[in-house]
Design a protein that fits this description.
alpha/beta; globular; 12 helices; 2-enoyl-CoA Hydratase, Chain A, domain 1
Length: 269
């Protein structure tokens, strides 16, 4: 399967060395973390650039999917640069990740290598996480005496469950790809040489979907995960989902798509 981004210009998000690179191919975007010799760590200036990008993408209406990957074949990202944690780690990092999580279109983390620290949460912000055998992950916050931030713990618990989160957060143990798949950190695992083709397969299916409905369902899925079903917020979300479902049943887009599908399935003469 061809690389959808082959030939697409890679533009740095900022003028500083090692800034993430952004490529656009039609309605698709690929963001590449770009410090392979330093495990694709994120500097404070990178966080500012990423936050600005995600805030812009939230309202541009021209993007169907975003792929995030890392340069090289060793590490997806090691997270926030250690030298800046004491003096420069502030609410911007959490806001950047929350903005990524809230994007109104599917996001795919293509894990080209292992993932550590805050970059594990960056991956959890994505809707789909695809990796390969041989990956590792760990979260060393407790080793450093750092309490993980609120929205990161929420994502961990809602996506991976309390038991897996407790193991990773309270012990800082390293786990490998099979366990990453078992606990749901990985959505999919393929041989390393098949990673690009698997990402393209996801993008192909996303391109067939109705973007407005995808955006609605993503918002509702996140709301359910955050609120739970039995809370007042959960019940309000369920009512909103029911209304969206009824509206989609009467939509012109549904009728048109069903008609096109029916035409494709007609037997040839």
């Amino acid at each position: 399967m061809p690389d959808r981004f082959a030939g697409a210009a890679a533009e740095p998000l900022a003028p500083h060395a090692g800034a993430p690179l952004l490529q656009r191919a039609g309605e698709l975007l690929r963001l590449t973390l770009n410090r392979p010799a330093e495990h694709n760590r994120l500097d404070p200036a990178d966080v500012d650039g990423l936050l600005a990008l995600f805030e812009r993408l939230a309202g541009d209406g021209s993007t169907r999917a975003l792929v995030i990957t890392g340069a090289g074949d060793r590490t997806f990202s090691s997270g926030y640069t250690l030298n800046a944690i004491g003096d420069d780690l502030d609410a911007r990092f959490e806001r950047m990740l929350d903005a990524l999580e809230a994007l109104p279109f599917p996001t795919v983390a293509a894990l080209n290598g292992s993932v550590y620290g805050g970059a594990t949460d960056l991956a959890l912000c994505c809707d789909i996480r695809i990796g390969s055998p041989g990956l590792k992950m760990f979260v060393p916050a407790a080793m450093f005496g750092l309490h993980f931030y609120a929205s990161g713990l929420r994502r961990y618990v809602t996506r991976l469950g309390l038991a897996a989160t407790s193991k990773l957060m309270l012990t800082a143990m390293t786990i490998e790809s099979d366990e990453m798949l078992r606990i749901g950190f990985l959505s999919d695992m393929v041989p390393r040489e098949a990673l690009g083709a698997r990402v393209d397969a996801y993008l192909e299916h996303i391109a067939r979907s109705a973007p407005a409905v995808v955006a609605q369902m993503k918002r509702h899925l996140h709301a359910l995960a955050h609120a739970g079903l039995e809370s007042d917020a959960g019940r309000a979300t369920m009512a909103s989902i029911a209304a969206a479902y009824r509206a989609s049943l009467g939509s012109d887009e549904l009728r048109q798509r069903l008609a096109r599908t029916g035409e494709k399935r007609q037997p040839s003469e």
